[in-house]
Amino acid sequence: MTEKIGKLFEHFATLVALALLVGVAAVIVIATASFLRLTAEVAIQDSWQVSYTTLQQLFDLLLGAVIALELAHSVKLMVEGHRGYAQVRIVLVIGILAVVRKLIVIELETVSGFLLLGLAAAVIALGAIFGMLLWLDRTGDLPKD
C-alpha cells in the first residue's frame, strides 16, 4: 500500500512539475521579450548615451530571464526524476543570481545598512556553500546524481 501511495505521489509531483515548467517557460518568453524590447529602444535612440537607470533596468531584465531559465532547468530535472546535488547547485546559482540582481538594481541612498548587511551575509553564505560543493565535487566525495 505504501509503495502504491509513493508511486501515486511521484506521478502527482511530475504533473505539478510539468505545469510549473510550462509556467516558467512563459515567464522566460516574457522576460526575454521585455529585455529585447528595451535593448531595441536603447539601440534606436538618437543618442548613444544611456542613463544609469536604463542600464539597471537592462541588467534587471537580463538577470530575471537568466534566473527564470535556471529555474526551468531545475524544474526540468524534477520532471525527469533527478533529485540531488545537481538541483542543489542550480538552486545555489539561482540564489547567487538573485542577490547579484538585487545588488545591481539597488539604490544605495534609499536602503538601510541592515539590508546591505543582510545581502552581504547572503553572498558570503551562498558563496561558501557553493565553494564547498565545488570542493566536494573535485575530491569526488559527492555521490553521482
Summary of the model, kept short:
This protein has 145 residues and is mostly helical.
Question: Which key phrases capture this entry?
Answer:
globular, single chain, 4 helices, 145 residues, mainly alpha
Description:
This protein is 81% helix and 0% strand. It is globular. It starts with a helix and ends in a 6-residue tail after the last helix. It is built from four helices and no strands. The model has no long low-confidence stretch (mean pLDDT 86). Helix 1 (2-43) runs antiparallel to helix 2 and helix 2 packs antiparallel against helix 3. By secondary structure, it is an all-alpha fold.
Low-confidence stretches: none
The arrangement of helices and strands along the chain is HHHH
User: In one word, what is the shape?
Assistant: globular
- Largest β sheet strand count, sense and barrel closure: none
Fraction of helical residues: over 70%
Percentage beta strand: under 5%
- Please identify the structural class as seen in this structure: mainly alpha
* Total helical segments: 4
